[in-house]
Amino acid sequence: MKQDSERIKHAIDMATKAHEGQFRKTGEPYIVHPLAVKKILEEWGMDEDTIIAGILHDTVEDTDLTLKDIKQEFGESVAFLVDGVTKLSVARNGMRDIDTYLPETKDNFLRLMIALGSDIRVLIIKLADRLHNLRTLSALPPDKQKKIAKESLEVFAPLADRLNMGLLRVEMADLAFKYVDPRRFEELKTLIDKYNKSAAQSLKKIEQEIGEALNKEKIHFELSGRVKSVYSLHKKLAKHNQNIGEIYDLTALRIIVDDITDCYLTLGVIHSLYTPMGGRIKDYIAVPKQNGYQSLHTTVITKDKRIVEFQIRTKEMHEYAEHGLAASFYYNEQKLTESYKTGKIEHLPTNLLWITELQMTAAKLREGKKVDLRKLKLNLFADKIFVYTPKGDIIDLPKGSLPLDFAYSLHSEIGDHVVGVKINGKMSNLNKKLEQGDVVEILTSKNQTPKQTWLEKIFTPHARQKLLRALRIKNEKDKEKPDQHIPPVKKK
Ligand code: MN
């Protein structure tokens, strides 16, 4: 464990004194909470200013300490972070009844968070704060438990997902879901446990087979099982009419290898051992998810007829999938000076390059160069809009996105079959730019095929890539048609 720096020790002293005589609902002295937040932020690998702001995050709102005091003792940056967290909590308290702002108006709070999150570290502190409050939720009265849990599910867990903080998203969602629907939680937990038990034996065999095959190819690897979260199973079951037979990732194995080449080699090894299921191979390395997530996914049928999902990724991708943005702070700090000098920034997906920019600025500062400090407070969401599915799921898209971008961001199957769009309940057209807060419903038809002209009605590279691929496949099919006597190429 790293020793606390003098600044951190000083912050702990100040917070302890300030919160003196205050107690949590658990009966413990209040200081336990900020210290827990500090520990979480340290585990996420956050920088010292963020950790200090975490220690002090409740002082301005709840004690006699002022922002001025904090600025004097710890500087501008810490004061800015504490101020952000305070404003967020004051504004939230203003929305007295969580039920009235969820789910229909939850974007109010989300927008507020976005506005205040112009320094993303404000949101990261808020997430750490919420995580500890969820971990100790049992001390609150039941009606408060439910409200906080519901808000966590609808606002904070999606936010963690947007920042690709996978571990946090899973822990938050499951902690919260337990309070929102305790019976369903137990039911599904039992189901997952039972399933895991029944799969244990054959998983062992699969691990062995894969291990031998990878060793033979001299691929260095780590293999582990992935536990499916109760809440994500709940959501998937709802999508598939409660038919558990349609959930293909109940059993999932994760393989971590040294580099990208080994990722693809490993995929080949798996497919030579087991039969891949059609349409279930996903290359999130070439085309990362919008939150920057990277991995290869494939679902196979094993020799004893089990359906198993594999996730293949490098160590770096793994770290990023678990800790997301926080990991980037940590990782980049170590690598940055070098990549800054060579001018090469490669390891982050392009849609998250702003983090690299942030870190480059920090590196310049360390080298004693002059930089515009305002640039450090990059507005992450400035170029983004948030729109909703009719079910209330939040989809974030770049400003300027059109209905087809929305459709393709949901699924390529949806994108390929678009026949129309309703925006806020009214029929609209595919040229209509989406706006903040729109509820977008995509109308599809099985008979529809992707059109060349759609290329002009698309804004995001993500959707363009998907459409181009669909057009290519369609053209190939069209070419095959007139020559019926030539047998089609057999696919393995
Ligand atoms: Mn707090």
Question: What report would you give on this structure?
Answer:
By secondary structure, the chain is α+β, with helices and mostly antiparallel strands. The chain has 3 domains: 6-163, Orthogonal Bundle (Hypothetical protein af1432); 183-324, Beta Polymerase, domain 2, CATH 3.30.460; 384-480, Roll (Ubiquitin-like (UB roll)), CATH 3.10.20. Helices cover 54% and strands 11% of the residues. It is built from 19 helices and 11 strands. It has helices spanning 6-18, 32-43, 48-55, 59-62, 67-74, 76-94, 98-101, 106-116, 120-135, 142-162, 166-180, 182-216, 230-239, 260-273, 315-342, 353-366, 403-410, 412-416, 461-480; strands at 221-226, 252-257, 275-276, 282-283, 296-301, 307-314, 384-388, 394-398, 418-423, 426-428, 440-444. α2 runs antiparallel to α3 (48-55), α2 (32-43) packs across α9 (120-135) and α10 (142-162) packs antiparallel against α11 (166-180). It is globular, with a radius of gyration of 25 Å. Residues 96-108, 331-352 and 373-382 have low confidence and may be disordered. The site of manganese (II) ion has 4 residues, from loops.
If you consult CATH, what is the topology of the largest domain?
Hypothetical protein af1432
Tell me the CATH superfamily of the largest domain: Hypothetical protein af1432
- Give Rg in angstroms: 25 Å
What would you call the shape? globular
